[in-house]
Amino acid sequence: MYYNGVYHLFYQYNPKGAVWGNIVWAHSVSTDLINWIPLEPAIYPSKIFDKFGTWSGSATILPGNKPIILYTGIIDANRTQVQNYAIPANLSDPYLRKWIKPDNNPLIVADMSINKTQFRDPTTAWMGRDGHWRILVGSVRNHRGKAILYRSKDFMKWTKAKHPLHTATNTGNWECPDFFPVSLKHTNGLDTSYNGEYIKHVLKVSLDVTRFEYYTVGTYDTKKDRYIPDNTSVDGWKGLRLDYGNYYASKSFYDPSKNRRIMLGWANESDTVDDDVRKGWAGVHPIPRKLWLDPSGKQLVQWPVKELETLRKEKVQLSNHKLYKGEKIEVKGITVAQADVEVTFSFASLDKAEPFDPSWADLYAQDVCFIKGSTVQGGLGPFGLITLASKNLEEYTPVFFRVFKAQDKYKVLMCSDASRSTLKNETTMYKPSFAGYVDVDLAYKKLSLRSLIDNSVVESFGAGGKTCITSRVYPTLAIFDKAHLFAFNNGTEAITIETLNAWSMADAKLH
Question: Which branch of life, at top level (predicted)?
Answer without folding.
Answer: Eukaryota
